[in-house]
Amino acid sequence: xxxxxxxxxxxxxxxxxxxxxxxxxxxxxxxxxxxxxxxxxxxxxxxxxxxxxxxxxxxxxxxxxxxxxxxxxxxxxxxxxxxxxxxxxxxxxxxxxxxxxxxxxxxxxxxxxxxxxxxxxxxxxxxxxxxxxxxxxxxxxxxxxxxxxxxxxxxxxxxxxxxxxxxxxxxxxxxxxxxxxxxxxxxxxxxxxxxxxxxxxxxxxxxxxxxxxxxxxxxxxxxxxxxxxxxxxxxxxxxxxxxxxxxxxxx
Length: 251
Fold this sequence. Notes:
- It comes from Antrihabitans stalagmiti.
- Its cofactor is Mg(2+).
- InterPro entries: CysQ/Inositol_MonoPase (IPR050725), Inositol_monoP_metal-BS (IPR020583), Inositol_monophosphatase-like (IPR000760).
- GO terms for molecular function: 3'(2'),5'-bisphosphate nucleotidase activity; metal ion binding.
- There is one protein chain.
- The protein is built from seven helices and ten strands.
- The protein is α/β, with parallel strands linked by helices.
- It folds into two domains: 122 residues, Fructose-1,6-Bisphosphatase, subunit A, domain 1 (Fructose-1,6-Bisphosphatase, Chain A, domain 1); 106 residues, D-Maltodextrin-Binding Protein, domain 2 (3-Layer(aba) Sandwich), CATH 3.40.190.80.
- The strands form two sheets. The protein has a five-stranded mixed sheet with strand order 1-2-3-4-5.
């Protein structure tokens, strides 16, 4: 069993999976079509993460996007929630860097207690134990990142009512980390996600002092029987009230 802290282990695993994906992409992006490359990346990164977790945290359960859902996790006190390749579409497209690897730990009675998001193209891993806490006021128009392929219907309301600048971007992890590092002020999503899409980004964002909730303001809950978690707000805390007001009552 690995003696690293859970947060350090999450960061190490996310980094390793990210390196694997970069190597795969460089070697095969000109040899196979994008969909096949994405599928292969999903599968190989999943195997790496599952093997490492089995060796380093053998008593813990795992919920992965790329594996069958073992419902025994519902009786477990510790569950790793992983997305081996968040942004498969972006990974399969030459030149795109807005994809990520998510590794998070949920603990009974505590929620997400350790998390890491690797952004391999940036060469960066954001981890819950060493992420910088954002400070200082918002300078200029509010910058809100949304899905570039399926932006929420209320995007136009955010733009109009808050004079916000809307920025389209790929994976959930990429959008959340844009807020964590201060390149955006909020990330808003509606229309469908799963626990593995947001668990690690939310864990890192909370450690950075950001507001994280459903679009109705209710808490984000993980290791649920049905892991569908369709909407999300991650933002600077001083913006939460105004953003939630708009998305709750779009005009």
